[in-house]
Design brief:
Two copies of one chain form a homodimer. The first copy, chain A, is of the alpha/beta class. The first copy, chain A, folds into three domains: 27-57 and 62-102, dopa decarboxylase, N-terminal domain (Up-down Bundle); 134-393, Aspartate Aminotransferase, domain 2 (3-Layer(aba) Sandwich), CATH 3.40.640.10; 415-518, Aspartate Aminotransferase, domain 1 (Alpha-Beta Complex). In chain A, 42% of the residues lie in helices and 11% in strands. Chain A is built from 16 helices and eleven strands. In chain A, the strands form two sheets. Chain A has a seven-stranded mixed β-sheet, with helices on both faces. A four-stranded antiparallel β-sheet of chain A has the order 8-9-11-10. The relative contact order of chain A is 0.13. The interface between A and B is large, with 197 and 197 residues.
Chain lengths: 522, 522
């Protein structure tokens, strides 16, 4: 181990370096030690296996108090490395201190938020990607990293029924893996602004963007980061379009807003449509939105960029019978969904497909001298760094490729179908209990439900359910419609890889039991 | 395997579901199969081990032609899953078709760009994170994921000599893991704008941001995405400050530009300083920049946010003797560096430290009903989703924790020191050859050098070197100074985990041989 008192190497001169150099004390094998990797991976997989097996009996969330984990760790980093021999101790700390302080997203009884699926081949894919350790920012910095991603996103585009114009083999389209749906929305909003400006040299102060009140909060976050809004309530350049009775965007209202903006000299440049909102799973009508955009374009000369955020529901489109809401998708500019939510690929893996890749890459590209290379200059290759915010990127296509090969299209279809069936059954159970209501249509594997007694009772119910920690749900507030006031509801989102029918039935028992406790007289 | 002709499940009614349901044909064990994980991880680790061992003899980059890998893969995804039995075939495809089509960032003779280090404990950390599969977007969605990250970033802040005010235990500071330095710059530029606007209600059209001409291209990219610039040459709200003779930002020129902007009613709100530029490793002077910002603040009432991008060089600050350029860091608002570049943590892991976390979280926070929870509302917890663009986040702190425990502070110091020593020796060798020059100071492990014969000769040299593929270098153009014209140079960036002294000596032999070939008469 080198002493910290070693001479200040910044002052080294030619003479003393050459005299002083020797092979390092620590062999480089220590850094990439294949034998240790095999031993430690085996131990790590044993831990993961125990963890997976324990999920059946663990409470879904933790009773840990803020600061407990932080305080359990030493104040300072170890000065002397603990080395490979300490690895079993590291695993003990993980198992003893960290695992009990998690919310168990892979629990068979996790029905909160949306699922964040993992699977055996996906975990192996992440391991391989980490072990190979390449950077795919440019084609030239790892050709296979780029081309496997192009191929696998083309596969996916076909699997979910997107037209050929979204494939990398088309004249202007292609797919790319982004980290999250949030990043995809930001990239698309930026590309939309860029295209609009380029078309008619519009000053940015006149550009406006649109999404429904039910769009994910990442739309507003993207609007703030990109400079369209100063804060969440800044509606100078952002319009939140009212919902219709299905809690989807009212295309009629979108049309009105866009035409009114256009009449005032504003240029609508971006519409974020949602297929499967986070609250209730509602889907906006792409055809009507595209019609409104076409009409707007005739007034302004700029066709608004339509981005489809199908973060969660997109995986369901591998079922042909689920594609009704895709009608009109050939008229949108971009489409993103997260295999890391509901297609057995672990986070992060958002797949974005565009029909106009030039507008995207043109909006992002900055090429300093140190990134120049012959392949890029030939124009024959895809450089994914220009498709998103980050420069560096890892080999995420590997996990997607392994998952698709392992399960096949039919295996993934079956996986999704089962969850939808479970949600069907759950919905039927809720509807059969006179205390409960299902105030909006089930969407795929998402069921929103409430106690008829009202919001206060529903709030008590979810609090009780989640405090018992046998299952986990989250809540939302459904917006008002012409037919109903806004309503607090519980969300039952089926989709964890380990969830079986019995877990869904148990969830319903748990919910009923809690309802019994808070409503003893019903 | 379910047939695709199964009844359309969207039409299921309460009656037929309840009658029809049965336990799934495919047991859920298939999705999270611990025994298969162990078997496949062992095979995957054997592949990784073989790959690591092969790096000694592989050419650093690939001769593959654009499209070759894409065409080697089937046109469509497999309809029927190949299952676990196909895994060995998947590994064969990786080994036969993908690995030879990579640029080998982990090669001991990779001296291009900056390093992208991996290490055994980091790969294991990525495996564990993938296998545990939690989402750390909120404290409540996995407390340990957040608190381990807080602790480990606090460790790191101490390790690289940042003051206590950047620790999570301070009143207003804290650290967070971001994906990349690009994302950190974007987040900081956005937070800076937000803070400036909030302070004096400034319209955004008057805000300006600054970096040196030598700042990373991600500054311009962030300026475009955030709306400060329409394209890379749009200098309405962005100023690229000229460099001084060391290729660092001229603080005098920064001061002039900011004061001139202030005099015209503009509000300078953001300065991106660089410690260790990508071209030549130059470091901007934080004290002088902070002085200029203080002076500007006296005129405008808004102190510009100073962000330090130390993406590559930051790791070197674990050496006390390397901290001269950190002087004044207590006066900056944020500081980011990438352990994924040069601290043995595999990509992605950028660590960002701020002194004013409220401005950051306030600029990002949008809280829809479905993300509300008691812990957030108590104000007692850190919700990292408000610290960056993405919402979801994986348990990246695990790999950082395992690396620090394994190597310890001293082991990491030694790692960095060795690379600096190698670069010292390389520099001496270059200087000793009369055909070559070292036109700017070596920075840590980065040496820029050129043929005295001029740019054309240096270009021929790097082309020849990289075509032989025994080592890999990248190039840059050093900007003009008062003493020298701009110059095309080769960059020798030492830092791969497997690099030994003999690899550096071999690199020099290779470069000399190529120089002999292109300059036979010298």
């Amino acid at each position: 181990m080198a002493a910290t008192s070693r001479a200040d190497i910044r002052k080294c001169t030619d003479a003393d370096i050459l005299g002083d150099m020797q092979d390092p004390l620590r062999p480089t094998d220590t850094y990439l030690d294949g034998a240790m990797l095999e031993r430690h991976a085996a131990l790590a997989c044993e831990l993961i296996r125990r963890y997976w097996e324990s999920l059946e009996t663990r409470q879904v969330s933790s009773e840990i108090k803020p600061g407990d984990v932080y305080r359990s760790m030493p104040d300072t980093a170890p000065d002397i490395g603990l080395g490979g021999a300490s690895f079993e101790e590291s695993l003990r700390i993980i198992e003893r201190d960290f695992l009990p302080a998690l919310t168990h997203w892979q629990s068979p009884r996790f029905f909160a938020f949306f699922p964040a699926n993992i699977s055996t081949p996906a975990v192996i894919g992440e391991l391989l990607s980490a072990g190979i350790g390449v950077q795919g920012m440019l084609w030239a910095t790892s050709p296979a990293c780029t081309e496997v991603e192009m191929r696998v996103t083309d596969w996916l585009a076909s699997m979910i029924g997107l037209p050929e114009s979204f494939h990398s083999t088309s004249r202007h389209g292609g797919g790319v893996i982004q980290g999250t749906a949030s990043e995809a929305i930001l990239a698309m909003l930026h590309a939309a602004r860029h295209r609009a400006r380029k078309r008619i040299g519009t000053p940015k102060s006149h550009l406006t963007s649109y999404a429904s009140t039910q769009a994910h909060s990442s739309f507003i976050k993207a609007a703030m980061i990109s400079g369209f809004a100063s804060h969440p309530e800044d509606f100078e350049h952002v319009r939140l379009v009212e919902n219709d009775d299905r809690h989807a965007m009212s295309a009629a209202r979108l049309r009105e807003l866009m035409l009114a903006d256009a009449a005032q000299g504003r240029i609508p440049c971006f519409v974020c449509a949602t297929l499967g909102t986070t609250s209730s799973g509602a889907s906006d009508e792409l055809e009507s939105i595209a019609d409104a955009c076409d009409e707007c374009a005739r007034l302004t000369g700029v066709r608004p960029w339509i981005h489809v955020d199908a973060a969660w529901l997109g995986s369901a489109f591998i079922l042909p019978e689920m594609r009704a809401s895709l009608r009109g998708v050939e008229r949108v500019d971009s489409f993103a969904f997260n295999p890391h939510k509901w297609m057995l690929v672990n986070f992060d893996c958002d797949c974005l497909f565009v029909q106009d890749r030039e507008s995207l890459t043109d909006s992002m590209s900055v090429t300093p001298e140190y990134l120049r290379n012959a392949a890029t200059e030939s124009g024959d290759v895809t450089d994914y760094r220009d498709w998103h915010v980050p420069l560096g990127r890892r080999f995420r296509a590997l996990k997607l490729w392994l998952v698709i090969r392992h399960f096949g299209v039919r295996g993934l279809q079956e996986y999704i179908r089962r969850h939808i069936e479970f949600a069907c059954e759950f919905e039927a159970l809720v509807r059969a209990d006179p205390r409960f209501e299902v105030p909006c249509e089930r969407s795929a594997s998402l069921v929103c439900f409430a106690l008829k007694q009202g919001d206060a009772a529903s709030k008590s119910l979810i609090e009780r359910v989640n405090t018992r920690r046998n299952i986990m749900l989250t809540q939302t507030v459904l917006p008002a419609t012409t037919k109903s006031a806004k309503k607090f509801v519980l969300r039952m989102a089926v989709g964890a890889a380990l969830t079986r029918r019995e877990d869904v039935l148990r969830a319903w028992d748990e919910i009923r039991t809690c309802a019994d406790e808070i409503q003893p007289n019903c």
